[in-house]
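S2.1 Query sequence (Rab-GAP TBC domain-containing protein)
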Amino acid sequence: MATAAVDKDEEDMIESVLNDMVNSIVRIEERGTSSIVDPHVGSRVCGTSADARKSDLEAKMRRVLRAYAVYNPRVGYCQGMGFLVRLLAEVADDEADIFWLFVGFSEPENNQNLYEPGMIVLQPYLSKFELLFSTHMPKLYSHFMAEGVHVATFCTRWFLTFFSSFETLAPTLVIRLLDIFIIDGWRIMFSVSLVILDELQQQLLKHDMEGILRILQFPRSFMPEVDESRQQQLVRHALAFSMSRTINSA
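Output structure tokens follow.
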């Protein structure tokens, strides 16, 4: 009986946290566009009221996040998951597809989970990126070190959300990058991070820690708006980094 009560309390706690997380993510408004996904997704919701669509999205996210908490109770849920699940929910109709896509992204190598407690899986990726950052952009890296800005401070959010937070990159661009990730793996994650820093380098060099962190928290606001041509340019830039010898040998 006592065990049942504990289980019920834990279920209630999970439900409460999931509700808060989903509500906070769904409230984030996409800047300057009515659809955060490619045109065929926009046409699919045409004629549906915004409230009904929002309600359906919230329910779908809750079910997927709840299913994942049951599937992997040791990891459960953590900050960052909701952004990726939201984006996947926009491009896939079937909740099973959303769930297994999320599992695939969160367990990139050897069934190790990116959201592992203590960041034991994430930390090697951060260390590798730091080496790449210092190699490709030594001047900016030295400036960051002088200002006390460490890679984990900004890259943790980028990596855990797969850039799917609206403040980081345009969602249509993130969808393309996720497609590449399926083939290219973590090289594209490192490459995109380098592209963001490269695009913002001249601005970042002018700022102290506070200014640097403000820019890196909302990098999209400090970069030109991404149209189709600009999107292709950024993807080419990322792929060029991805194919470089230093990324493949680091």
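The chain has two domains: 50-114, 121-247. Residues 121-247 form a domain with the Cyclin A; domain 1 fold (CATH 1.10.472.80).
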